[in-house]
Design a protein that fits this description.
The chain has 13 helices and no strands. With 246 residues, it is an all-alpha fold.
């Protein structure tokens, strides 16, 4: 599956998909630096060493010329192109002493380990995205029960920092006051009158931020929605306080 994803990304990049090419390069910056440093027998730094610029271009070349049908793994093919271009560069610059002329086979084990690490990282990312997709789907269904949609949230999300901070404060007070939270969950409505008395926030602000407050309160009060907490911009410590009380 992961190998298939890599091949699909390569195929799209070769066809001119700049987004996929950038993704491929971004995910392989460590690989490019590692291979180049090994060939040059010294640690190389991006935006400082010309060798990495050469290797970067070579990796692009590898994307364009790689052919899965020839039976060579992409990482092995890319390493060979990088090595050849660096050798050409050093010969031109008369810097032969920097080149590692050891046989390519000597690094096969290292490349195999890299392939395994890369595949595991990709697997973790796929799993993370799958879990997040399930959480979002469940969240959308629960929001609907409260008469809120994602489109609503886009429209009512506060644009100004002060308003956003005020509503975040109200949401935190809401989830930490059992009677208010119980009212919200039981009646699927925001207890606006009680919140005004409890927080001192103007009713007009509470009414205008009703759907936003409901969305925040659900994320912060239900553990199953915690993966979405990064969307709230509320410090994790605040959520931790709520959890410790339950």
């Amino acid at each position: 599956m992961l190998q298939h994803n890599l091949e699909e990304t390569l195929k799209l990049a070769k066809k001119g998909d700049l987004g996929k090419r950038e993704e491929l390069i971004r995910n392989h910056k460590n690989f490019i630096a590692k291979v180049s440093s090994k060939i040059c027998n010294r640690y190389l730094i991006w935006n400082n060493d010309d060798e990495l610029s050469i290797a970067f271009l070579a990796f692009n070349e590898a994307i364009d010329n790689f052919k899965p049908s020839e039976g060579t793994a992409f990482h092995s093919f890319a390493q060979r192109i990088i090595r050849n271009r660096l050798i050409d560069y050093f010969r031109k610059e008369s810097k032969h002493m920097h080149i590692s002329l050891s046989p390519m086979d000597s690094s096969d084990e290292e490349l195999r380990r890299y392939d395994e690490e890369y595949s595991y990282e990709q697997y973790q990312e796929v799993e993370k995205q799958a879990v997040l997709a399930e959480v979002v789907e469940s969240y959308i269904k629960v929001l609907w029960e409260y008469g809120v949609t994602l489109d609503d949230l886009v429209k009512v999300s506060p644009r100004h920092k002060n308003r956003k901070e005020t509503l975040m404060m109200v949401a935190l007070k809401l989830i930490n006051e059992p009677s208010l939270l119980e009212y919200l969950k039981k009646y699927k409505r925001l207890p606006v009158k009680e919140l005004k008395l409890f927080t001192g926030v103007n009713r007009r602000i509470l009414d205008g931020g009703r759907k936003y407050l409901i969305a925040l309160a659900l994320i912060l009060s239900e553990p199953r929605f915690y993966p979405l907490k990064s969307l709230t911009e509320i410090p994790c410590a605040s959520i931790g306080e709520k959890v410790s009380r339950q």
